[in-house]
Amino acid sequence: xxxxxxxxxxxxxxxxxxxxxxxxxxxxxxxxxxxxxxxxxxxxxxxxxxxxxxxxxxxxxxxxxxxxxxxxxxxxxxxxxxxxxxxxxxxxxxxxxxxxxxxxxxxxxxxxxxxxxxxxxxxxxxxxxxxxxxxxxxxxxxxxxxxxxxxxxxxxxxxxxxxxxxxxxxxxxxxxxxxxxxxxxxxxxxxxxxxxxxxxxxxxxxxxxxxxxxxxxxxxxxxxxxxxxxxxxxxxxxxxxxxxxxxxxxxxxxxxxxxxxxxxxxxxxxxxxxxxxxxxxxxxxxxxxxxxxxxxxxxxxxxxxxxxxxxxxxxxxxxxxxxxxxxxxxxxxxxxxxxxxxxxxxxxxxxxxxxxxxxxxxxxxxxxxxxxxxxxxxxxxxxxxxxxxxxxxxxxxxxxxxxxxxxxxxxxxxxxxxxxxxxxxxxxxxxxxxxxxxxxxxxxxxxxxxxxxxxxxxxxxxxxxxxxxxxxxxxxxxxxxxxxxxxxxxxxxxxxxxxxxxxxxxxxxxx
Length: 511
What we know:
The chain is an alpha+beta fold. It contains 19 helices and 11 strands. The strands form 3 sheets. Strands 1, 3, 5, 6, 7, 10 and 11 form a 7-stranded mixed beta sheet that branches. A two-stranded antiparallel sheet has the order 2-4. Strands 8-9 form a two-stranded antiparallel sheet. The longest helix has 23 residues, at 488-510. The radius of gyration is 27 Å and the shape is globular. The two termini are 48 Å apart. The relative contact order is 0.16. The model is unreliable at 9-40, 97-111, 277-281, 283-292 and 367-386 (pLDDT under 50). Monomer. InterPro entries: EXOV, PDDEXK-like_dom_sf.
């Protein structure tokens, strides 16, 4: 596998002076040393504390921004006004401190508090997947599979002590940066949903709009994807898709290593196929016209400093990008069985979506579909040609039909299936303070490395082995861990180190 390429932008040096005295470190190196001493460096790279969870409890419709349009419809303006009022009400309710009622739980008026004797905890021998990711709990996410790459034990303690990842200040700041980036492409409007099927219909519709936005503008953000890994339903959200290759040099070297002809080179087979063509030039032109542009994945990470992670700290992000690539490839190849998802989320895929949902989404989403959405030869002639969102929703008013429409959009966007996906992946690092890009890392997709990682991590999720802590070389991760003081793995490693030191002293004394 090609080694990741790294680019770091140079921030302005705020400490330049005319003095002859100073540090031999560059500003970036000084920040890295400072973060190492404070423990913040590890926190920036820890997906358990820093990974933005893309779960918005609100049901929001994502409308592609229409640049150059100065006025919007009264319906859109009314929806935005209602959205602002709802947010103000929600903020006023949640901004206050919640009272601590723990000392009143067992108190009866006029009597002394009843002291409950401590209960002996029975060890829970269920696997992590059974305890934390079976209905009615949420399904596995890409974050669930990536977080153990930082430290399995830390994620195990997080789940067992808190039940889920705690939302940290770093996550809140990261969410703000991601929201600003999303709003460069979309405007979100809250939609009322009547049923579980409505909520899922909105999620699928947003993916459809995301794919269209990618084709129309060359970029889309926050695209939700679903699939299965080792028989388990997994979902995730890709930060960015675009037609821009993040590292052309790496892509060229990857192409050469595969010893493949250029995509526009006419082969012998192509030549004979085009024997009826007027000339070889026309055959080559036909070949080029059928070759599509590739789509590339990017994941955005936020950081407190102006640096990019080291190789060992980069592993979770590397695995995350490759997981996205695998899930997106399966959707592009139409190998994801929606009935499995419907069963996992307890959905009736044949239930008609509510009239209110269709009216809301169809009225607000006034984008026009110009592509031919029905497959060639399809009996659904109502989809051929130009139609508005309302007509399309009425023609696809169940989850099964809406999913089929989404797959058609994938085929329009990625006409060659998984081969339309570029195999160069990018991680983009942005400052939490101002959202500015501080550096990037690129890597090549490695199917074997991903398969090896998934196989080992699923052993832990399925309870086939115990969670493991970090190796000694990655002990820096413990500095930012909330469970370091009680971590059995860490205590064991410390004792092993002490025992080795004692044995070494004994051997020295004997000599």
